[in-house]
Amino acid sequence: MIQKRKSVRSFDGRALKSEDRTSLEQYILTPPNPFDVPIVFRLLDAKEYDLSSPVIVGTDLYLAAKVKRCNHYEIGFGYSFEHVCLYAESLGIGTVMLAASLSRTAFEKAMDVCPDEVLPVASPLGYPAQKKSIRETLMRKGLKADERIPFEKLFFDRQYGNQLSATSAGIYYSALEMARWAPSAGNKQPWRAVIMGDTVHFYEEKSMKDSPLGDIQKVDVGIALAHFDLTMHEEGHSGRFVEANPGIDLPENVQYVISYEKDK
Predict the structure, then answer these.
(1) pTM, full prediction
(2) Is 10 in a helix, a strand, or coil?
(3) Is the CB of residue 64 less than 8 Å from the CB of residue 28?
């Protein structure tokens, strides 16, 4: 599903099949969330709540979620939201995470967002159109949406900046490669990682300013963490996310986020 999924902005106008909608509604009740971040997901009808996005055509259904501001809320939100998007993909339902290009006030009202909560992103839901709109085609081209930063410039061996080869990555190679292909705001790809023994330390390379919603690039890191964790499980490995900052030297615009410890 990670390799198959592409962001979708053009939909074919069909309502979701009842069985697909029911499956999705059940899944969003308890999506995976290893960071214990309180997140509420809902499916919203655009006509009922006067929701809109200038970049979306062909659907009136949206997935929205709100989260309480707490420790790791951005990465927890990104992790869980991506799980839902991947589950939707398994049902043939298209998604795309929208942060700026949506009627935010209407979405926040529909979700009853409280002062201690934020709604970082929402996504349209529907079956992808056979042909992308001209706007979507131009957007993907402008964002270079099908391109990613090379593996060796994202992931490092024992110290930041010391390039990690596929061979040196060992059992982490596939998981890091799937993390590399995570979607991100503006396709900035802010995730970085350093392998030290059985521990992978994750970082954020900041290239965007924080907003009143928080650090949207940490949401992107959470998406990459979901890809990493899913792939580790798929390949038969288990582990957990922990705070274990190794305190290594970092560039000024890079900050530690979280670590993954593989079970012995």
Answers:
(1) 0.94
(2) strand
(3) no
